[in-house]
């Protein structure tokens, strides 16, 4: 069944049925071609694998991106909150998500959204974190522009001293 290939179970089945070594190749292609930036970290949060898109985006070398090196790309104002979120994960936490800015090639920053899920070993300890980073910069700018417009409208209405009503007439 072709549609089964698009479910997690279907993908796992395809990988299990692949010739030896072929599943690794399929995994590598999927990992590198994702529009998001997939990553894997060990149970302690040390990045062990990350898509090459991270290095294209940030201009970092692989040596800078692995282990704790990725922290160097996080905006200095966002890093303490992100680290606090990560340190605050309890032993039973299965997922986390965070929004922060990443320094990109050329020196600017872009807003990103990172999500991850834990994989536990037989004892229940986190063995790995599997996650992805998604560029949400345009979305954040749109939210900020909308909020600024709403604030300008609020100030304009206040400055006029006039009331404002929102009336909905029934059809």
Present the secondary structure layout.
Layout: H1 8-17, H2 22-33, E1 37-42, E2 47-50, H3 52-58, H4 62-65, H5 79-87, E3 95-103, E4 109-120, E5 126-135, H6 137-160
Antiparallel strand pairs: 1-2, 1-5, 3-4, 4-5
Helix pairs in contact: 1-2
Task: Give me some keywords for this one.
5-stranded antiparallel β-sheet; 6 helices; 171 residues; 39% helix; single chain; alpha+beta
Q: Could you explain the architecture of this structure?
A:
This protein is of the alpha+beta class. The protein has helices at 8-17, 22-33, 52-58, 62-65, 79-87, 137-160; strands spanning 37-42, 47-50, 95-103, 109-120, 126-135. It has a five-stranded antiparallel sheet with strand order 2-1-5-4-3, with helices on both faces. A hairpin with a 4-residue loop joins β1 and β2 (47-50). α1 (8-17) crosses α2. The radius of gyration is 22 Å and the shape is elongated.
Structure, briefly:
The protein is an alpha+beta fold. Helix content is 39%, strand content 24%.
Structural class comes to alpha+beta
- Total helical elements: 6
The topology string of helices and strands comes to HHEEHHHEEEH
Helix coverage percent: 25-40%
């Amino acid at each position: 069944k072709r549609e089964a290939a698009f479910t997690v179970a279907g993908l796992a089945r395809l990988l299990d049925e692949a010739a030896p070594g072929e599943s690794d190749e399929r995994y590598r292609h999927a990992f590198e071609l994702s529009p998001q930036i997939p990553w894997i970290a060990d149970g302690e949060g040390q990045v062990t694998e990350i898509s090459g898109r991270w290095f294209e985006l940030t201009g970092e070398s692989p040596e800078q991106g692995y282990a704790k090196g990725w922290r160097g790309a996080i905006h200095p104002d966002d890093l303490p909150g992100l680290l606090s979120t990560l340190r605050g994960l309890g032993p039973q936490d299965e997922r986390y998500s965070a929004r922060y800015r990443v320094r990109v090639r050329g020196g600017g920053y872009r807003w990103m959204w990172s999500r991850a899920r834990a994989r536990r070993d037989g004892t229940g300890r986190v063995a790995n974190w599997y996650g992805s980073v998604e560029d949400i910069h345009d979305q954040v700018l749109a939210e900020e522009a909308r909020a600024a417009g709403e604030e300008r409208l609020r100030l304009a209405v206040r400055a006029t001293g006039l009331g404002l009503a929102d009336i909905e007439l029934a059809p």
